[in-house]
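Input/output pair, single chain:
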Amino acid sequence: MRLSQLTFLLTDSVQYGLGDPDITSITADSRQVRPGTLFVAIFGLRVDGHEFIGQAAAQGAAAIVGELPPTESGALSGAEIPYLQVANSRSALAWLAAAWHDFPARKLTVIGVTGTDGKTTTGTLIAHILRGAGRKVGLVTTVQADIGGHTLDTGLHVTTPDALDTQHYLAEMVKAGCEVAVLESTSHGLHQRRVDACEFDLAIVTNITHEHLDYHGTWDNYAAAKGILFQHLSASVEKGGTTKTAVLNAEDASFPLLDAILSQGRSSLRRLTYGLQNGAVQAADITHAPDCTTFTLDLGHSIYDLGLAVDGLQTQITTRLIGDFNIYNILAAACATLALGVPLDVLRVAIASFDGVVGRMERLDEGQPFLAIVDFAHSPVSLQRALETVRPLVAPEGRLIAVFGSAGQRDRAKRYLMGHIGGRLADLTVITAEDPRTEAIADISAEIACGCQDAGGQEGETYWRVDDRAAALAFACRLARTGDVVIACGKGHERSMCFGVTETPWNEQEAMRAALRAAWPKPAAPSAA
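Output:
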């Protein structure tokens, strides 16, 4: 493909040097440059790609894209090869990748899901409902990519895949005959422009709480990063047949900010709101039971004012998911799929058949006389919701035992908060490792322990520090007795744990099952007479 065929949408670019070379590949990693490669220099968090322009040129790069003038990069004195200066290299990379794959998002209905908690569950449920309605759907979450029935691992500790991978996944969806793409869109992915050029048709937010402030600095910055999804929605191309729709949580602190962003966008954009008591789509008559949750999905007459062609205003929902936060996730998914014309009966049946997502309130049974749960909760708000959700499942004389840690080289403020939440809401807390990275586990645990202590906890009586996570799970299972609930939070679906700079294989489910079997061995089967 010629350089000009890739760059025609980079309207803010300035080209230095003549020529329109053939491009054989695109990369932002100088180590991957081969003759014919278009190298995109990006200001990274730790490395400046502009410093590798000379290396890329020496390895045969056919052209360079960067934010600095070529003479300021210190690598190109002028116009040895075509150099395009752009305002934002990350955004340019996304549009170049989209052009390389012939703009796959324009051939799909693209749904973006953002928020602090519930993104994966909501996105996966949307895909499940649409498949129940006969639609062919591609799905990319932080857990995996599911394209045409083929499941792909998106990597270790991945948020949203990078722009090159995201456009590749969209292209594979088109090739597989998908009609709809569901993309989990994290704050990092949005801020780093990984989902630019995804041409969204629906944008959904679950909630915006205290998380990732190590990266964003303030909640306002964090929320603004989430808001980029709704800016993309307003700016994306019209595809015909789908009304651009924003789905907002009417009961979340993010609502005024996102509503204001939408007010500055295209006037034809439809807004759907949801909540337990507020919004166009609500949940009424909620009943929680250990094995299911039931409620009435109430659309209300205001739904007609939004131009939504629905086949009723209420339906009874039964779900295996537990907790009010999962009702919010279901309401968000319902808004998205109703906006795409899914009938209420199909919606109801699909929700009833949804088993949930691995590592999200996942029950494990090895014959123990108490409930064991694995969950991904790793922020103060998600931990609080997780503990509040499972509290009703504790027997009258039982105890809630929580196992969790906090990641190293991440927002330090949340460590104390999580410790305080554990000390306040759990009967017993076991503090342990969760991706300490280059920090000492003991230092992280000490900050969590301060929160437990200030919440009234006593070390050795109501909370313990066990650095090794497998040993912590085993310790919690030995503490447990009939009627208790043991919940391990923070790792969920992840399949590695980072110590130093090394990713070590880790499987929370296997570790918990091993702990359960060791602490509560099943009685031997009676021998045959």
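The chain is about 35% helix and 20% strand. The first strand starts at residue 14 and ends at 16.
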